[in-house]
Specification:
By secondary structure, this protein is an all-alpha fold. Helices cover 73% and strands 0% of the residues. The protein starts with a helix and ends in a 5-residue tail after the last helix.
Length: 508
């Protein structure tokens, strides 16, 4: 047998391996093929190809494994059990950039499914190898590594801490300064995933100098990058007053307000979320946002969009209003109540309605003036019907009830109160009648109106437990009117008069 014939055998073997691994990589890109590939034992066949002498075969084998592991957690589990991860990690530092990208893809695909699978990636020493890849000259390798680290960090604080301990944070901060937009996006996303779990992890990101670089990118024209930047700043700001103040000190206002007018819905939502996370902490931070025009901008944003994009803005208004009478008045003066009422009526999702109800309750709970501003929009009857509607979620019913109580306990707008008199259940009726008992003794015009509109008649129809608070309120109201008027509007009085007419013997 000649030398050429011998070498031909090897060439055929190489061509066969190349053909096989390329075909598997292509097949694994389609979900309908996954089950068949798994049943045919594809994992055990791909594993030795990761150590193949031909680099393209190694890379394609890694790509195929990544696609399989990405599909579901069972296949990702098979990669772990097949002892494939240690091989990938060993090769990460030695191989070329194409292999590094494919290997990082496998690690990401395994780690994304669950904390347990992410822990398996950590235990095989992948984090240190991925951190080294963040320093690679090739932006694609950095991007793949940052992506894998983000998928591991997203699960919980322990895994996120492991990413921090591997030294990834300063390198990620360097990555957001690179010129490539895709790398900036993934690095910002990973910093967001690290920051979200605890104040300590967020502080680590802050200590690495991330805030200043993130803040500079708020005006970047790339919408996907803006989403990630706003998300990362939100995850830092949400934990404490100190962290929120550090974000504010990076001079994100009034720049961040432009995001509320962005054409990208997620940029709008993440911008509103960032403002909400700052506003919730203290009256001082809320006042700063008001002074920067933040409340008016959020109100415009709520009015111009629909669905879950509205949610963070709704909650932000609630947080601002909750802090103090003055801040609540700032929301009222900026015409914040009508769009919140619109959300209650227009939205289909109960959790958005519940947030709007809560926000209205926070606005109206301070003084009679605040309560009146909410009550004159006729929203109280909407809140009442949502509370009483059996189709409303438990959370919506609870938020609507609390909002009603908050507003009613301060409300002195009698027409708004009277609109509820005929439908309210006893636990709400108590608050309505209580308000009448406070106003009527001091207002003669209101007493006259109360009789004319049928309010007094309705109060006489209420069945209250003797000695209860509700009965006390009713007695207080009745004491505001002559006895014969009260008796005239009491149930059964007209029948008693008719009976007296029937029984009356005329004197001839």
């Amino acid at each position: 047998m000649s030398q050429r014939q011998v070498l031909q055998v090897f060439e055929q073997y190489q061509r066969a391996r190349t053909h096989f691994v390329q075909a598997v990589a292509e097949l694994s890109a389609r979900p309908q093929n996954i089950g068949t590939l798994r049943d045919a034992g594809v994992m055990s066949l791909l594993r030795p190809l990761l150590l193949d002498v031909v680099p393209t075969i190694q890379q394609t084998a890694a790509l195929a494994l990544g696609r399989l592991a990405n599909y579901n957690d069972d296949l990702a589990e098979a990669v772990v059990k097949g002892d494939i991860l240690p091989q990938l990690v060993c090769s990460l530092s030695e191989q070329n950039r194409f292999y590094k990208k494919a290997a990082a893809f496998v690690l990401r695909a395994v780690g994304k499914h669950s904390p347990q699978l992410a822990q398996a990636v950590v235990e095989c020493g992948a984090l240190e190898a991925l951190a080294v890849c963040l320093e690679d000259f090739d932006p694609g390798v950095k991007e793949a590594a940052a992506w894998a680290l983000g998928y591991i960090a997203q699960h919980n604080a322990e895994l996120s801490q492991a990413v921090v301990d591997a030294g990834a944070v300063p390198l990620l901060v360097l990555c957001i300064q690179e010129p490539e937009i895709a790398l900036k996006r993934i690095a910002a996303s990973t910093l967001s995933d690290i920051s979200k779990h605890s104040p300590e992890l967020a502080q680590t990101v802050v200590d690495a100098g991330a805030i200043a670089f993130l803040a500079q990118m708020i005006l970047n024209p790339d919408a996907k990058l803006k989403r990630q930047v706003l998300s990362a700043l939100s995850q830092i700001a949400k934990h404490s007053v100190d962290l929120a103040e550090l974000v504010v000190e990076a001079e994100i206002f009034p720049v961040v307000l432009t995001c509320l007018k962005d054409s990208d819905e997620y940029v709008k939502k993440n911008g509103a979320t960032l403002i909400r996370e700052i506003a919730k902490h203290s009256p001082e931070l809320s006042q700063f946002i008001v002074n920067a025009g933040g409340v008016a901008a959020v109100i415009d944003c709520i009015g111009s969009c629909k669905g879950t994009v509205r949610l963070p803005g709704i909650m932000m208004l609630g947080y601002v209003a909750a802090h103090s009478e003055n801040l609540s008045m700032a929301v009222i003066v900026s015409k914040g109540i009508p769009p919140l009422c619109a959300c209650l009526i227009e939205e289909h999702e109960d959790h958005i309605k519940a947030a709007a109800a809560w926000a209205l309750g926070q606005i109206g709970r301070h003084t009679p003036e605040h309560a009146r501003a909410v009550a004159v929009t006729n929203v109280l009857s909407t809140l009442l019907s949502m509370y009483m509607d059996i189709r409303s979620s438990e959370d919506l019913q609870l938020k609507a009830k609390r909002a009603l109580k908050n507003i009613l306990q301060k409300c002195t707008d009698l027409p708004a109160l009277e609109a509820l008199l005929h439908d309210a259940p006893p636990n709400i009726m108590k608050h309505i009648v209580g308000q009448f008992s406070k106003v009527l003794p001091h207002d003669s015009k209101a007493r006259r109106l109360f009789v004319i509109t049928g309010g007094l008649k309705k109060v006489q129809e209420i069945k209250a437990e003797p000695g209860s608070l509700l009965q006390e309120y009713i007695n207080t109201i009745n004491n505001c009117f002559p006895e014969e008027i009260v008796r005239y509007y009491s149930p059964g009085y007209s029948e008693m008069l008719l009976e007296r007419v029937e029984n009356y013997q005329p004197v001839l």
